[in-house]
Amino acid sequence: MDRIIIQGGSTLNGTLHISGAKNAALPLLTAALLTEEPFHLSNVPELADIRLMIELLSQHGCVITSQNNEVTIDASAVENTTAPYDIVRKMRASILVLGPLVARFGKARVSLPGGCAIGTRPVDIHVNGLQKLGAQIELSEGYINASAPDGLVGATISMPMISVTATENLMMAATLAKGETVLINAAREPEIIDLANCLKSMGAIIEGAGTDRITIQGVDRLKGTSYSVIPDRIETATYAIAAIITQGELTLCDTDLALIPTVSEALTRTGAIITPTANGFTIKAGSGPIQGVDVMTEPYPGFATDIQAQMMALMTLSNGASMITETIFENRFMHVPELCRMGANITVHGSSALVRGVPYLSAAEVMATDLRASVSLVLAGLAAKGDTILNRIYHLDRGYEKLEQKLTDVGAKIERSKAPAEA
Ligand code: EPZ
Prior knowledge:
single chain, alpha/beta, four-stranded mixed β-sheet, 14 helices, 24 strands, binds ligand EPZ
């Protein structure tokens, strides 16, 4: 397995390009299933998860070409409406084919994704919402078997929890349902707005995306489109923290500060100086020590759970303390023991972690456990004294396009190598 070796201590300076958002591109790719016309996406990040979604859509019968961050999909000849376990188990976002398949083809057989490292992550909101839209659903042999031979019918769906992909799945399904659908307690993430804008460019009638109440008027069919993916707000925040933790200054381009309202406010409270630019922003570490900041993860526009691990890495070096509370997932502190092995002082009490700042971190051989935990260890390694070795970096490849290249271009000493077999 590959591993990354980071020689800590470099100050990052320069300009860094932000890629298209993984969590926008994934639902956008499944939207291609809703039309038989050519569907084109640009600014698609080249990531393992994107390649897996392309593999999943191809086995459904989509004809796909992808190169240089551009993907073209022809779903006119889709026949297979089964999403198999061996793909779905690798990427939970595979569940996003369920809504489009039932909406356009009247049936789908999608493997239950199963849990993952950060939690059990059920899909009951997806399933119950589709039932509300008139789909017959049977769970058997680890699969969701859904059918709507006469098509879906619009309904008012009040979701018990705010769920990003459930909102996306049901919004896509509703675009081809008969009549009006109202999603209550909908997720408000920018990726929802991006998907709604793409669907509207295909002829869908959607109001309220970005609010907790989304109204969709079903139409008979959707056209093809050509659409560009929004910037990745999680990648943006990750590299903003890299600037602070290395006491450097980075200009992040092809992104938008407005995508991270709560996170940028928290980073400012640590003492960092943020200056908006025409197509992003410059972030500079403050002249004084890093200030401890309390953080609680919440659905957008609150502090994103996908940035919790990265913020914790920064807080390990504050001149005070920080209480970090994770409210979205039940097991998203797996980076804590690895950070502690690098000298961090963190104690976990239930869903909260108390981070007491230490004067420095020390390099160690550490292991990535999930996508965002792995990048928090990269951030810690950039600041630590010595050479940090990060194993199991396939997690990183799922969500960070050209990570070593981007960091090297702004002064990091980071390289990928083959790990010994046992790592
Ligand atoms: C999306 O996952 C993101 N993934 C996650 O990013 C992100 O962490 C998460 O939203 C929260 O912001 C994509 O967009 C592809 P949820 P999703 O449904 O939609 C519970 C990353 O690192 N829930 O909003 O799966 C669930 O268990 C990934 O890029 C149910 O109970 O998350 C969780 O506690 C990790 N039943 C809460 O809701 C359901 O049917 C929020 O989960 C669905 C969700």
